[in-house]
Amino acid sequence: MAKLVFPDGFLWGVATSAYQIEGAWNEDGRGESIWDRFAHTPGRIQDGSTGDVACDHYHHWPEDVAIMKQLGIQVYRFSVSWPRILPEGRIGPNGKGLNGKGLNFYDRLVDGLLEAGIIPFVTLYHWDLPQTLQEKGGWAARDTAAAFAELADVTTRRLGDRVQNWITHNEPWCTSLLSHQIGEHAPGWQNWYAALRVAHHVLLSHGLATERIRANVKNSQVGIALNFEPAEPASPSPADYHAARLWDGYYFRWFLDPLCGRRYPADMLDYYQRQGYLPHGLDFVQAADLDTIARPTDFLGINYYTRHVARDESSPDNRPQTVFPAPVSKRTEMGWEVSPQTFYNLLNRLHFEYQIPKLIVTENGCSYLEEPDEGGRVADTRRIQFLQGHLAAAHRAIQNGVPLAGYFQWSLLDNFEWARGYTQRFGIIHVDYATQKRTLKDSAFWYRDVIATNSVISSQRDLQ
After folding, report:
1. How much of the chain is helix, strand and coil, in % rounded to 5?
2. Catalytic annotation present for 417
3. Is the pLDDT of residue 23 over 70?
4. pTM of the complete model
5. How far is residue 273's CA from residue 31's CA, in Å, rounded to a whole number?
6. Which of 150, 337, 363, 370 is catalytic?
7. Fewer CB near the terminus (10 Å): N or C of the chain?
8. Annotated catalytic residue within 22, 88, 150, 171
9. Span 380-432, pLDDT tens digits
């Protein structure tokens, strides 16, 4: 066993998102979001549930903040609900579209966090677009990028005197491709061209919002959180290496490259055009867009859960597979392979290939379904092992010189897991949805000790 000590000032946090925990979906002037509409549409959510109540954090936030304080949580990353602040999506004449009660809620939450000694880390968009904007084209309409800049403006004007840390978007890949090409998330479209157009408008809105945040918040720290599912070729064959490269462009480079001033990757642009997904090229890109997208930011948020083994099953001369996904016993309840080594490789790549000045793990966690026993204990040993292995990988990357400044565990609470409803549990706190009772899992107490000592005790296996 080894004690791995993290650098002084390393930030330890937890993360949530508004629609997944807040509930109060139609209270105090909140408007309808695309996820309200999606979840209320039969057949969209695995268990037929909605986020109408979820963890009822809107009413239970003082209890949740008290639990975070008890655990020694240093940073709380949460998202604001766009339709709670701007029910119609836009400000409107004379500011009439602004919902004061919605902003008051976040005022109270921020003040409560600061009183508890917890740093607020605010995400402006975690997928809950106002339905009124969706009916005008949603993210496929360029005007939505301007609407998002308005959200950034009003939110930072209200909270920027107390909140310095801002994330513009959570996982643009999910907002665009998962939601508009695959159709698994709201609004449930299945259109390649629309999805790529959405991706551009989301990235453009990030640049526009960055400008507003900088103008409104003194000494602001601004970033964006991308999700990464790194690809590994299933064999040494050219076919599998090509499959891995395509996945890398689809999931990774199409978003990170323009953010880093590298424009859209040429190989993927060529591929999308040959496939007919971009019949007129990047016709939705205007002259200054790429410069706006590449506005300098202070950090990159990293959301990591698993890897992707890339196999070209269509190639008749492909070589025998040599890299295989892990068996079910080494997967989470989501079916995701547990791979700390891939996490380590990713952190190194982001530093050495992209030279990003500061990295923060904004999400990392796992779903396991342990319930309280008769004594009320939730013995989630597998979650502890998952976190331990990934923290060991993070420490090893820091030893290489990777500028990793913080780690936010996903998630504080069991919650509404999007299209899977309440079939998954990612929290270090168990939530009984019928009673809203919170029960700290063993992983919560384990994480408390990690934070208190700024270290993790790891086995030799975790270090490999």
Report:
1. 45, 15, 40
2. no
3. yes
4. 0.98
5. 38
6. 363
7. N
8. 171
9. 999 999 999 999 999 999 999 999 999 999 999 999 999 999 999 999 999 99
